[in-house]
Target: Myb domain
Amino acid sequence: MGRAPCCDKTAVKKGPWSTEEDAVLKSFIEKHGTGNNWISLPQRIGIKRCGKSCRLRWLNYLRPNLKHGGFTDEEDYIICSLYITIGSRWSIIASQLPGRTDNDIKNYWNTRLKKKLMSKQGKAFHQQLNVKFERGTTSSSSTQNQIQMFHDENTKSNQTLYNQVVVPSIPSFAMEEQSMIKNPILEPFYCEPNNVLFDLDHDAAASSYHHHSSSSLNSMSSSSSIGTNSSLQMSHYTSNHNDHGDQQDMFFMAGFENFQAELFDEIANNNTGEIEFHGTEMPNNNYLDHDISSFIDYPLYDNE
DNA sequence: AACCGACTCAACCGCCTGCCT
DNA sequence: TAGGCAGGCGGTTGAGTCGGT
Model:
């Protein structure tokens, strides 16, 4: 038995809003406010719409000072950083971008930004961002050394794709969220085409404790194309817990979201230290370019 | 010109949360 | 404390548009 609907679905209009409806809603709210009751609002102003629909129309389209389209590099950076930090919590992300709605950001992420980051062009994009934003401002010197070593290794081996590393640079406004979910900082200290090893650490400002264990991710791509809808890929995850020696296998749809969730789980369960990725199963030659990079191709630092 | 697939984004759906009684 | 309700939210849908053939 489902939940009772918020309104009589048969008696309300659906679909795109007309300019007349917009005008009525906008004019009323500007004069009287919402009265803290969206459900009764349509009746009060005489339009056949669901209260929730009115709320959405106001918040996403009619309210003042909204910006549509034309996201700047700074906004891109904030969205990316926060997405990496807190995941798809669009309302929180939107709260950091004045004039943007959660819906706009969600659409922008799903249709453009995600692809931008996952494409080869994302590399240039990363570089652009790093010109604008100070590199690795919260990185420790040891991290920088690791990054340098990492860079040197990859320069030698000509694996330029893997020159992209994750830098622990997260906007300060996300600190509360970070501490709540114990956001990890990823410090890659070893990388080769089919093996990326991260050091997990907490944000130093939030916590200083470490955990000790390791796990491995064996990712098996079910798709060979990145840049369409293939951010979701069937992957095989194997977790080897050093402390107990037990092993866990599971399959999941892996995009970065899953990767992130797994990391958080690792930390929440006191399993930190190292996380290792192995590209051990390669259905085709595109595998490495795509699947591994889909994990490490996120923020936002390029040593070149 | 017609067709078709990809893309965009406004809008909807349904679940979750928190407030009120 | 429990139940009902409205608000808030993220995921998803589908109509409209665009670009390629």
